[in-house]
Amino acid sequence: MGRGESSGGGMGAGGETSLDISVSLRDKEAPTKEWTLRCPDGGTLPSPEQACEELERLDHPFAPVPKDVACTQVYGGPQIATVTGTFRGERVDARFSRTDGCEIERWDRVAFLFGTTT
């Protein structure tokens, strides 16, 4: 199993998932994109059922990058995202960016929540 993947479980074991997602481009006039996700299969995010299934496979998808980790200084783009709500019954208030290698990896793990951001 890869980093951040769950060996199973399910929403029944973990509680409700209800997320509000917004994605924007830093310092750009582009409009902010906003979606909701209500698992197991609702919300305004495209393909919500598939997104719920993908999210369920991950352990701690909204955890921040640990402070003691060295990250490559690679810029991945101006995208920023916020995810708030509940995941498996636990409060979520996460911010995502693509400012370095660690943040890019973190973004890519849950990119299915962010839709098309180009």
Describe the protein in words.
The chain is of the alpha+beta class. It has a single domain, classed as Subtilisin Inhibitor (2-Layer Sandwich), CATH 3.30.350. 19% of the residues lie in helices and 28% in strands. The chain is built from 3 helices and 4 strands, in the order H-E-E-H-E-E-H. It has helices at 11-14, 48-56, 101-109, and strands at 17-25, 33-39, 79-87, 90-97. It has a 4-stranded antiparallel β-sheet, covered by helices on one side. A hairpin with a 7-residue loop joins strand 1 (17-25) and strand 2 (33-39). It starts with 10 loop residues before the first helix and ends in a 9-residue tail after the last helix. Residues 1-13 have low confidence and may be disordered.
